[in-house]
Amino acid sequence: MPNDPFFVIVLLSVVAVAVVLMMGLGGFATGGKFNKRNANKLMRWRIIAQFIAVLLILAYVYFRGGTI
After folding, report:
1. Taking 60 as the threshold, does the pLDDT of residue 43 lie above it?
2. What is the total count of domains within the chain?
3. Is 43 helix (H, G, I), strand (E, B) or coil?
């Protein structure tokens, strides 16, 4: 699996979701100006990244012949 480029793309998309989530949680935990400026923006980016990650996971399962 790690040699499959499509799997690597799926894995990177999941990592991107985790990074955006951690940035949002970190900003929420510390509060202040950063959180006020970027909280909604980070939430939107996380939702978009999560949507793309789910689509890529479904495409991976579909094209590799697995079952959901």
Report:
1. yes
2. 1
3. helix
